[in-house]
Amino acid sequence: MKYWTRAGFSQEMTPVYSKITIAQIYNLSGERSLIATAEIPLAGILANETVKQADLPIKFCGYSQCYRKEAGQGKDAKGIFRLHQFSKVEMFAFTDESQSEKMLEEIVKIQIQLYEQLGFHFRVLELPTEELGASAYRKFDVEMWLPSKNAFCEVYLLKQC
User: Fold this and answer.
1) CA-CA distance, 157 to 111, in Å (whole number)?
2) What element of type H or E holds 136?
3) 16 near 35, Cβ under 8 Å?
4) How far apart are CA 116 and CA 158, in angstroms?
């Protein structure tokens, strides 16, 4: 976590469940579900606050336990290898529209520097518009070379929403 703190991100430990229920995640009793990504709780941190434009960007780095049902259903054929439960660190930033593009570039640069420091063989791909999804304006996949698969495989996703 120190790596991301040095890059100006505040550390957040996210909860393991949220009030969102969708098919790909494990639903608990009531309206709660185990989280599939830190993105959901990080997005809600400032939900009941008014943020001054002068205070932007606000950058969070969330460590989370993630839970996904899609593991073992062929999802790894297209990219990231899914497990039912895994841990990850996720960067999330609140910006205004004029800062959004610069923030995405900063986050991409931070990930590239991390993989370079670790000595990984990787590549960064900008995804075409048909693969963006409803919330994303731009999206990048970071793929790492996995000798066991003899292929590049997605290990990180970066998006601008």
Assistant:
1) 10
2) none
3) yes
4) 17
Find the largest Cα–Cα distance for the chain.
Answer: 49
Cβ atoms of residues 24 and 35 within 8 Å: no
- pTM score > 0.85 for this model? no
Task: Give the tens place of pLDDT for each residue, 111-139.
Answer: 999 999 999 999 999 988 887 777 778 88
User: Going edge to edge, which strands form the sheet with 58-67?
Assistant: 10-13, 58-67, 85-94
Token pair, residue 48, equals 């009941």
Give the contacts of 104 (CB within 8 A, at least 6 positions apart). 138, 158, 160
Ordered alpha helix ranges (H), 7-133: 39-43, 97-118
Q: In the chain, count H helices and then E strands.
A: 3, 8
Helix (H) or strand (E) holding 119: none
Higher pLDDT, 21 or 33: 33
> Strand 10-13 relative to strand 151-160: parallel, antiparallel, unpaired?
unpaired
Q: How far apart are CA 58 and CA 148, in angstroms?
A: 39
Alpha-carbon distance 147 to 84, whole Å? Answer: 23
- List the structure tokens of 56: 């932007």
Q: What is the pLDDT of residues 63-75, one digit of tens each?
A: 888 877 765 555 5
